[in-house]
Amino acid sequence: xxxxxxxxxxxxxxxxxVYDALSFIVFGRSLLQAQTTFLSAIPxxxxxxxxxxxxxxVLEQVLLQxxxxxxxYLEASARMLARAxxxxxxxxxxxSVEFRLGxxxxxxxxxxxxxxxxxFVLDLFTGQTLANTILPRLRRTLAPGGLWLVTDFVxxxxxxxxxxxxxxxxxxxxxxxxxxxQLADWPKLLSEQGVTLTRSQSAVGGMVVSQVWQAATxx
Length: 219
Ligand SMILES: C[S@@+](CC[C@H](N)C(=O)[O-])C[C@H]1O[C@@H](n2cnc3c(N)ncnc32)[C@H](O)[C@@H]1O
Prior knowledge:
The protein has one domain: Vaccinia Virus protein VP39 (Rossmann fold, 3-Layer(aba) Sandwich), CATH 3.40.50.150. Helix content is 36%, strand content 24%. It is built from 7 helices and 7 strands; from the N terminus they run ααβαβαββαβααββ. A 7-stranded mixed sheet has the order 3-2-1-4-5-7-6. The radius of gyration is 16 Å and the shape is globular. S-adenosylmethionine is lined by residues 7, 9, 12, 23, 31, 51-54, 74-77, 80, 103-104, 119-121, 124. GO terms for molecular function: methyltransferase activity. This is Class I SAM-dependent methyltransferase.
């Protein structure tokens, strides 16, 4: 199997075997629920890019609920990718999924998607990396009028939330080597990419938001 692509988002291979269990212990099912909040906004027959989907729980829901034409599952961790593809083999679902090991640099210049999903991925990067690299590269692949579904942690005033988010970032810096030391203001940076926020819902006491951003119909 090809090895993990180690970029700014770290190396999640070591964490992959325990990732879902840890997430469930801390947050229950609320992080998965948050990721599925706006799946109903995805039109049928869409081409969908899922970036950093991890072990594939959200992929299962996308295939069950959205009836896509094509899904590109882009994941930088070989172990996460293996878990996601294994999940699909165990539970055959309708739909065409390409599992691709890599990060945004593995996207072809001519690839376009009706929908991009970034579930708990933007929080791995510094504001600088998001603004200069990740967001523009992903934005280029979004078709005119396309939707960008983001689910992620957001900056909060409450010290309890700041502490929990700080602990999570410290944990992933230690175990996965992510680059960031604090949560970037990703909604602001996303708004600078020529996409407009159309829907937003909070979860986990306001620590997490699920949002739909839309590209203009003419780019
Ligand atoms: C915090 S985990 C979230 C996993 C999953 N979305 C979830 O919520 O359970 C972040 C995931 O993004 C992947 N990742 C990090 N940087 C990436 C990149 N630039 N392109 C694709 N995947 C990336 C990691 O390998 C990891 O599986």
